[in-house]
């Protein structure tokens, strides 16, 4: 629970500020063009520094970096909550992301190395995956409650008591495995890998405002790919590589990373569109918009703890992951028929429940399978790679699907706006049309996640690979 609590704090902070953003924008005088940096500063620092954070956890020791990450995250949250201007808030959010990049891989690697028995491992990863998978929805609920009844600043201050509980729990309950003192930090690899990820995520975030054909966006994406190519080349020659390539050469593990990224692209898109749909189109308050996601959160928690955790010890991971992707995609199909006055119970609730059940079947097997059988000295960087695929997938999904929605909505409005007296209705219909087009794409991406899981995740059952064991340099 201590480890899962820390992971919950990291995940919910990616969305808790979303609902509070309009209030923060008014209070600090942010422009419409710059308000995105409240979200992007966090995801850029988090996604770009995760691999480095994972390797630091392996070198220094996981409990030390876990506690350091908690304290730093709480400090950055306090700075953001007390922000006197927009620049101070942007900086605090970037600092949160940097400490999250240390905290998240430390948490998952501690879980991996602590729970090695099949039954215990299933329960532990069930609890962890439930909170990790539902953290985004919990963030939306908490953001609505805190913004409406207290103040937008409490969306940041709330991390402080969570971190305090985590620090005391870490010292009282968590093991303190020593770091690998003989290893060295791969500085060139850190610069190339982190630089490539930051550049790509930044390029995708800029595409939301500039468009995918903008020269700056194309240059950033090309530069990011070039840096990551150089990173892979360097990892084959580095004496102490930041990301040992045998970790991603394993077919099952690579399949888990890719499945996670694709599934999160679809999930983050749904969070984005449903948040705006509920508040802007249907007129929900922030609290009711957040509570509307509660059935999805409950479905994720139930499915991970009561279904995935019990079945993973008996069936192959893809037996859960493939049906999970199909369930999530079928839930998305409910949202492709949205209208400007769709009712919640008949159109939204079934889709949210199906999505929650589907994501619950995906998250837990991905986390457990991707980190199974990894050498203890590599558990931090492997955990970081899982989190990196999740974070980068969310960033890419938000920008990609939002661009599709905006473009489709604009085309619809231009084609149907023939009578000025109906402008307000046509604009609302155009916005909803853009959402539905993007959700079709999200459903297709979710089905692709299921296909990847079915073809690449070939592990039979995790019970023969639950105890961390050394991984050979070359894995077929």
TrEMBL record:
<feature type="transmembrane region" description="Helical">
    <location>
        <begin position="319"/>
        <end position="340"/>
    </location>
</feature>
<keyword id="KW-1133">Transmembrane helix</keyword>
<feature type="transmembrane region" description="Helical">
    <location>
        <begin position="438"/>
        <end position="457"/>
    </location>
</feature>
<keyword id="KW-1003">Cell membrane</keyword>
<feature type="transmembrane region" description="Helical">
    <location>
        <begin position="151"/>
        <end position="173"/>
    </location>
</feature>
<dbReference type="GO" id="GO:0046677">
    <property type="term" value="P:response to antibiotic"/>
</dbReference>
<dbReference type="Pfam" id="PF07690">
    <property type="entry name" value="MFS_1"/>
</dbReference>
<feature type="transmembrane region" description="Helical">
    <location>
        <begin position="396"/>
        <end position="418"/>
    </location>
</feature>
<feature type="transmembrane region" description="Helical">
    <location>
        <begin position="216"/>
        <end position="234"/>
    </location>
</feature>
<feature type="transmembrane region" description="Helical">
    <location>
        <begin position="94"/>
        <end position="113"/>
    </location>
</feature>
<feature type="domain" description="Major facilitator superfamily (MFS) profile">
    <location>
        <begin position="1"/>
        <end position="462"/>
    </location>
</feature>
<dbReference type="InterPro" id="IPR004638">
    <property type="entry name" value="EmrB-like"/>
</dbReference>
<dbReference type="InterPro" id="IPR011701">
    <property type="entry name" value="MFS"/>
</dbReference>
<feature type="transmembrane region" description="Helical">
    <location>
        <begin position="185"/>
        <end position="204"/>
    </location>
</feature>
<dbReference type="InterPro" id="IPR005829">
    <property type="entry name" value="Sugar_transporter_CS"/>
</dbReference>
<feature type="transmembrane region" description="Helical">
    <location>
        <begin position="125"/>
        <end position="145"/>
    </location>
</feature>
<feature type="transmembrane region" description="Helical">
    <location>
        <begin position="34"/>
        <end position="54"/>
    </location>
</feature>
<keyword id="KW-0046">Antibiotic resistance</keyword>
<dbReference type="GO" id="GO:0022857">
    <property type="term" value="F:transmembrane transporter activity"/>
</dbReference>
<feature type="transmembrane region" description="Helical">
    <location>
        <begin position="66"/>
        <end position="88"/>
    </location>
</feature>
<feature type="transmembrane region" description="Helical">
    <location>
        <begin position="352"/>
        <end position="375"/>
    </location>
</feature>
<feature type="transmembrane region" description="Helical">
    <location>
        <begin position="284"/>
        <end position="307"/>
    </location>
</feature>
<keyword id="KW-0472">Membrane</keyword>
<feature type="transmembrane region" description="Helical">
    <location>
        <begin position="255"/>
        <end position="278"/>
    </location>
</feature>
<keyword id="KW-0812">Transmembrane</keyword>
<dbReference type="GO" id="GO:0005886">
    <property type="term" value="C:plasma membrane"/>
</dbReference>
<dbReference type="InterPro" id="IPR036259">
    <property type="entry name" value="MFS_trans_sf"/>
</dbReference>
<protein>
    <submittedName>
        <fullName>MFS transporter</fullName>
    </submittedName>
</protein>
<dbReference type="InterPro" id="IPR020846">
    <property type="entry name" value="MFS_dom"/>
</dbReference>
<keyword id="KW-0813">Transport</keyword>
């Amino acid at each position: 629970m201590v480890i899962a609590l820390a992971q919950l704090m990291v995940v919910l902070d990616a969305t808790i500020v979303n609902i509070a953003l309009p209030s923060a924008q008014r209070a600090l005088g942010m422009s419409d063009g710059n308000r995105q940096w409240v979200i992007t500063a966090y995801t850029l620092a988090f996604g770009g520094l995760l691999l480095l954070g994972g390797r630091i956890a392996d070198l220094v020791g996981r409990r030390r970096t876990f506690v350091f990450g908690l304290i730093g995250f709480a400090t950055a949250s306090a700075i953001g909550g007390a922000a006197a201007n927009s620049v101070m808030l942007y900086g605090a959010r970037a600092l949160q992301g940097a400490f999250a990049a240390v905290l998240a891989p430390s948490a998952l690697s501690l879980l991996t190395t602590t729970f090695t028995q099949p039954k215990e491992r299933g329960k532990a990863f069930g609890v962890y995956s439930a909170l990790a998978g539902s953290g985004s929805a919990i963030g939306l609920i908490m953001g609505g409650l805190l913004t409406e009844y207290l103040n937008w600043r409490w969306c940041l201050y709330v991390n402080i008591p969570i971190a305090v509980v985590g620090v005391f729990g870490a010292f009282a309950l968590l093991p303190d495995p020593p770091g690998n003192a003989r290893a060295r930090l791969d500085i060139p690899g850190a610069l190339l890998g982190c630089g490539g990820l930051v550049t790509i995520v930044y390029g995708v975030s800029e595409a939301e405002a500039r468009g995918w054909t903008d020269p700056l966006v194309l240059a950033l994406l090309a530069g990011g790919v070039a840096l990551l190519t150089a990173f892979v080349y360097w990892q084959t020659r580095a004496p102490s590589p930041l990301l040992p390539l045998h970790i991603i050469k394993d077919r099952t593990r690579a399949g888990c990373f890719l499945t996670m990224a694709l599934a999160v692209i679809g999930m983050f898109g749904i969070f984005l569109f449903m948040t705006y749909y509920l508040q802007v189109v249907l007129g929900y308050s922030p609290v009711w918009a957040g509570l509307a996601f509660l059935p999805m959160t409950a479905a994720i928690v139930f499915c991970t703890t009561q279904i995935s955790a019990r079945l993973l010890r008996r069936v192959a991971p893809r037996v859960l992951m493939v049906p999970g992707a199909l369930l999530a995609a079928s839930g998305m199909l409910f949202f492709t028929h949205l209208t400007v006055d769709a009712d919640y119970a008949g159109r939204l609730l079934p889709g949210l429940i199906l999505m929650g059940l589907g994501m619950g079947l995906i998250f837990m097997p991905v986390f457990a399978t991707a980190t199974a059988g990894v050498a203890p000295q590599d558990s931090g960087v492997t955990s970081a790679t899982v989190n990196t695929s999740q974070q980068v997938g969310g960033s890419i999904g938000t920008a990609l699907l939002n661009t599709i929605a905006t473009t489709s909505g604009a085309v619809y409005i231009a084609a149907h706006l023939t009578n000025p007296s109906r402008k307000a209705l046509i604009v609302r219909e155009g916005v909803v049309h853009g959402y539905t087009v993007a959700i079709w794409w999200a459903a297709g991406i979710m089905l692709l996640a299921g296909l990847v899981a079915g073809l690449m995740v070939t592990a039979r059952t995790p019970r023969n690979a639950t105890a961390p064991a050394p991984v050979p340099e070359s894995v077929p």
